[in-house]
Amino acid sequence: MIIFDLRLVIFALVALLLLCVALAIWLDRARWRNASFREQERRMAELWHKLQAAQQDLRLLSHEVRTPLTAIQGHVEVLRTARLPDEVRDSSLSLIGAESQRIRHLLDALVELGRLDLDEDVVDKPVALLIVVEDALAQTAPRAEAKHMDLALDADPGLPHVPGDENRLKQVFLNLLDNAVKYGRPGDRVMVTLKRVNEAILCEVRDTGPGIPQAHLPYVTRRLYRARTDVEGSGLGLSIVEEILRLHRSQLIIESEAEGAQTGTTFRFELPLYSA
To answer: Final residue of a domain: which of 118, 144, 166?
Structure first.
């Protein structure tokens, strides 16, 4: 029964994702009547690409949840044993909880990506980026301290506001910081830099961690792609970052060195200044 329910939830959420794409296509039909042929063609191609991406997400999701579902099923069978030592029962329950949480995080991230795919515009409210970054650092600090890693911030004084969605921009920094801490080693350092450059703010999240091998670097923002499978993760964090930055008219640049004495990764992007 547990396995059936989990699969039903997965099917329902992915079906909802596909339904949202179909709804977007239907809603855009009214706009196409007044649009030029080239504009209609562009929108159709874009929506068709989104539908194909949603179908690909379904295939990838099916593959990703197979392992945790198999583990849950195996331990459910263990728990059905009439006589079972308490430590074995506790271990099985703990694993079922952890794998269920893993599936939930995966689904939450995939649904968020679906929302981002359907968004054409982002709320352009003035955002105090320094406050956003300070909140993200404070939220990440306990995990960094637990791994004996240092977090630091270097920001120009009096930074102007940027246009955008405060919560989504915070999610960008949370995902990048989480990535740095998750793959970091004791003694590694993570530095967030905010600098005004002409009519934009240059944002960097730089770490001294193990780095990303060059063979994996072109693919790390692909959905469900993981360069390392020995570290827990959904493979969707950087995909979400890239999509949020796209909505904020920005682009994620990744530089990394995984060999030599100086290893580490830098995530860089620019946000335009707010103009009323």
So the answer is: 118
Same domain, 112 and 53: yes
Boundary (domain end) residue, out of 96, 118, 140: 118
Per-residue DSSP letter, 261: S
Q: Looking at the 3D structure of the chain, how many domains does it have?
A: 2
Residue of 142, 127, 109, 47 lying closest to 239 (CA atoms)? 109
pLDDT-above-70 percentage for the chain: 64
Q: Are 133 and 199 found together in one domain?
A: yes
Query: Are 209 and 184 contacting, i.e. CB atoms less than 8 angstroms apart?
Result: yes
Chain mean pLDDT for the chain? 79
Least confident range of 42-51, 81-90, 139-148: 42-51
* Domain range enclosing 223: 125-272
Q: Burial letters for 190-217: b for 16+ Cβ neighbours within 10 Å, e otherwise?
A: bbbbbeeeeeebebbbbbbbbbbeeeeb
Q: What is the pLDDT of residue 2?
A: 44
Q: Quick: pLDDT tens for 152-163.
A: 999 999 999 999
